[in-house]
TrEMBL record:
Domain of life: Bacteria
PANTHER family reported for this sequence: TRANSPOSASE (PTHR33627:SF1)
The protein, known as: Transposase
Domain Transposase IS4-like: 18-73
Coiled-coil regions listed: none
Species the sequence originates in: Amycolatopsis speibonae
InterPro entries for the chain: IS701-like (IPR039365), RNaseH-like_sf (IPR012337), Transposase_11 (IPR002559)
Amino acid sequence: MLAEWPPGEPEPTDYWLSTLPVDVRPRDLVRLAKIRWRIEHDYRELKDGLGLDHFEGRSWLGLHRHVTLAAVAQAICTQLRRTPKAPAQA
């Protein structure tokens, strides 16, 4: 069991149960527990910012093209975010 107890809080704010091996370092365990936020953020960006939920076509092929283009756009955004010399765009 992993618990997050921020300073100044009367009790822990989050809990995680793990079935990972006991030799997993606490740092890795925390990283894996916190990765859910990153996944939710990326999904929200895909859906709201990049238009994943705007598909109104009628074909299976069209849906696949739309999802592929949204995924490529997100990959480009992620690459720009990770590149320190990338200019900030509004």
